[in-house]
Amino acid sequence: MRCPTCGAEVPAAPTCAACGAPLAAAPVATGSLRWQVVGGNAFAAARVELAAGQAVRAESGAMISMSGNVDLQSELQGGLMGALKRMVTRESLFVSTFTAMGGPAEVLLAPPVPGDVVGVELAGRALLVQSSSWLGSDPDVQLDTEFAGFRGLFAGEGLFFIRMSGRGTALLSSYGAIVRRPLPPGARYVVDTGHIVAFDAAMPYQVRKASRRGWVRSILSGEALVAEFAGPGEVWLQTRNLRSLAGALFPLFPSQQGRQGGLGLGDLLGD
């Protein structure tokens, strides 16, 4: 196998014999898409293996590299109306399609932030996905935008989800690791709204205050709002969220009114 870090051809093993880097597992075949995680779990990317004539769709700008025989086309997903829907989810207006021409090929895809990548086989079901977590999918996977109602607004996740349906593999990404939680019938599960990656579209949920004892206890807990899901179904969670990171970094940067004791970018870099 080839080491994704140094490119050396080495025997299959936990680490590369040439550079010592961890080696990715064998490609996973889910549906018609063969792919594997490269780069480690903290800075994961997806290496998609394409047979001759096979294609994969991805978020515009997600491509790291590709074989020389891959044809790349970018187009407005779903035409003008589809592009307008994607604009309200803060996604790129364009979707890229990579097609292997004349032989097998590979495409490396990565999300814009460090974190995890997982593949989900839809098998005819529909998922609701937070707007930043779609990385790529089979061409047969249908992408649409679904109104989340004011539950999404109150949860801080926005008014719209990406709805994935059909058959094939969807590649999801996150900031932090992705944890899958299957829920049996009747089970209830509570998730901080900033940690939701995706969930079954048919699964009922409600956004409520974190503590049932009132708003004061909810706010003091640091959680405020949570989403409560009712099984059966599945939920995918991310172990970190960018809002918390931004809150942790904010005191280190000067405000518009002055430094107020914070560190500037030059201070952080040692300038």
UniProtKB/TrEMBL annotation:
InterPro entries: AIM24, AIM24_sf, Trp_RNA-bd_attenuator-like_dom. Signal peptide: none annotated. This is TIGR00266 family protein. Gene3D superfamilies: Mitochondrial biogenesis AIM24. It comes from Anaeromyxobacter oryzae. It comes from the Bacteria.
